Batch of 2 targets.
Target 1
Amino acid sequence: RNMPYDMATAGAPITQINSATNVLAVSPKLPDTTVKELIAWARANPGKLSFGSAGAGGTIHLAGEMFKALTGIDMEHIAYAARPAAHNDLFGGQIQLMFDGLPPALGHIRGGRLRALAVTTAKRSQLLPDLPTIAEAGVPGYAVQGWNGFVGPAGLPRSIVDRLHRETVKVLALEPVRQRLLALGAEPVGSAPAAFGAHMKAEREMWGKLIAKIGLRLD
């Protein structure tokens, strides 16, 4: 509540670097193999579903809160100090699901320690192209992405903003950089400053409404 700055006015958007994918992964101990089956199980077993994250307020946590808000299911959030601890409880069935980053979960999915049901983004991931999005799998309107970008201080001269944008786009177009981002579950973006500013505004509004609705406080 007491942030010392307002991101709506404190920064000069330069460019969105990437868009990252999360995956809805469930414990193999859970019987569900589809998103619709998971929702049905949760409604038939109120109070028995919990999801983990690597800390409150991050994309992994908020992706679960968005899922709860759009489906109306009862699901408890368990915040862990680090991802490996959450994974261990997920493998053992102490928690039932996680909206994890795709690259950290990928090895566990391929090794059978986790079952992937869907990706959180609006379109499918190149890493798991046969896996549907959550919206495709039965939750219309659901779309959550992680992302990174460059922002300078408010009032940064336009000439500097434009040059930083141009040079970043050149780097993102390099094939080794593109392949590295894809291996991390992210796709290069390189949007124009105005487009990145609009994206940040849309994200603030979307998450702001959800946070206000559920009364989330980190302090």
Note: The helical segments are 7-10, 35-44, 59-71, 83-92, 102-110, 158-172, 175-183, 193-214.
Target 2
Amino acid sequence: MWIYLSICIVLTLFYAVIMAIYLHSWKNTKAFSSSIEFPLPSVSIVIPVRNEELHIEQLIKDILAQDYPAHLIEIIIVDDHSEDKTPEIVRRFQNDNIHLISLDQYLKDQGVSTAYKKKAIEAGVQSAKGQLIMTTDGDCHVSKQWINSMVNIWHSSGAKLLTGAVVMTETDTFFKKFQSLDFLGMMGITAAMLNLKIYNMANGANLLYEKSAFESVNGFSGIHHLASGDDMLLMYKIAQKYDGAVAYAKHPDAVVYTKTMSTLKDFLQQRFRWTAKSKDYQDQRMTWILGTVFLFVFSLVVNFIAAFFGKTFLYLFLAQIIIKIISDYRLLKCTAQYYGRGDLMKSFFSSQILHIVYIVFVGSLGNLLKFEWKGRSQTK
């Protein structure tokens, strides 16, 4: 009994400490300026797409409306075997700076692959003329300051690779508010991790890297067999090659916007896909952190159930849940307010229940079950 109680206390203290470290590191992540004058580089926006007929037109319009010199931007859409009108919509744009690449054609000389997104990005980078590569997803949209902000931060930071924030926009239901708030927490932790020089979190929907850096690490060579990881695994390779020359683009304009998952199934599939990446973390510190956080949340659930059989477990559960609420609230409030989404904190307390349930469920099964991604079944 005392051994179990001691373990729970240690797990709880660990959670409180790691969340405090995240918060401190987020606050100390440098917020870069986006108004520095220097010779602007050419930029290639690589967008791998599959069945994005509902979104791709608006994304292209967003990029064409950027406050960055149009002659320095090229848009490369790589169609990953779409079964809808995505390629047709792209072809409607009569613009010499918009290029459509067929992944099917590219793969004819590459052999069979399950890492379709990596191959799509690889195809786009190979044909890119820009000094800088920026990637996003076909179902996202961006403000007109996106490219300018990211490029200025790249110049100011001296980084070879930047990862920026991705913010979810839909908040008309509790489920969508939960996703949006949870995602903002991930942005704060991503920034904190990079500030701590732990290179295991990034988002391919908002990446910038030098084309020469991508080529110098041989792109996705060595990680082609993995279906995902086009973001954090590439980041790790570049960080190792260039002694940590990666950074988080902390600026309110350096943001990509996306929608929430519309159904619980889609949400779980997304989180199963993210969890599957954990098996391939190169830096084991993140593996230990995630594992310990999972054990803490699992112990919280166990103590909640055991509370019906003894006051000791009830008091332990109450102590744990109070510490979790305080720790989570402090970090989420900071990140939500920074990105102008302080309104989401109204759903914080009710979101805690769902947060606990999904961590235990996804953490337990994420490395065991197959996940579906863009209509394809994957295991990792």
Note: The mean pLDDT is 89.
